[in-house]
Amino acid sequence: KPLSSTFAVDFSAxxxxxxxxxxxxxxxxxxxxxIAGDVIIxxxxxxxxxTPSFLVFFSPxxxxxxxAALNAFDxxxxxxxxxxxxxxxxxxxxxxxxxxxxxxxxxxxxPFSSYYWGYALGNAHVIQTTLIVAALYFGFxxxxxxxxFMLMLASFDPRVTLLSIPILLYYNRANLRKFVAGAAxxxxxFNVPFFFYNDIGFxxxxxxxxxxxxxxxxxxxxxxxxxxxxxxxxxxxxxYSIRKGVSFSKKKTSNPV
Length: 257
Prior knowledge:
61% helix
C-alpha cells in the first residue's frame, strides 16, 4: 500500500509539537494517540522530543499545511549542506591538506546514507550538523557572540552540545568570557520563559531527559556528533604537527607553520 502524502516522518513530531504549543501547550511532549483538537497527520504523528527553544524557530512553518511545511523544511536542509561545506572549508583552510580532505570526506561523504535518511524523514539532525559546525567556525573566526548564538540554535538536542564544549572553548579562547556569557544568555533567553508558560520547560525535563532521548540513537543522530568529533581530531593533529614540525601530506617539513 502506498504511503500517504502526509506520511508521519520525523518531521511530524515537530509539526504536532508546534501545533500543540499554539492550541494545547500542556500536551506538547505527550506521546500516543491523537488528542482532541490535534491536526491530523496520517497515520499518526511521532512524539516531539526537543528543547522548548526549537518551538520558537519552527513556528514560521505553521503558516503552511503539513505537506508544504515538510517540503520547505527539506529544501532548507538541502541548502544547509552547502553552508556546511563552506564552514568545513574555512576551518580546514591553511591546515594540512591531507587533514582537510579527510575532514571533508568523513563529515560530508562517508555518512551519505545518514544524510539521505535524515532528509527522507525530515529529521532536523541534518540542519543541526550545519548549525554546530557554524558555531565552531564563528568561534574560529573570532566572532564569539555569533558562535554562541549558533550554539544555542544547535542545542535543541543537547547531546551534541556536550561533546562540542571542549572544541568550542578552544576556538573561542581569545574571547572566552564573551562566548560563555553569550551562550548562557541565549540559552536562558530562549528556554527559561517556557518554564513559566504552562510548565513546558518542566515537562521537557520530566518526559524527555528521563526517557528515550538518552538512549535512542539512529544513524542521522550521529551526524552532528561525527562532525564535532572529526573537527576536534583535526585540530588535535594540527596542534601536534605544528609542535613536532611534521606534515601529514609530506614526509617532513623543516619550517613548521
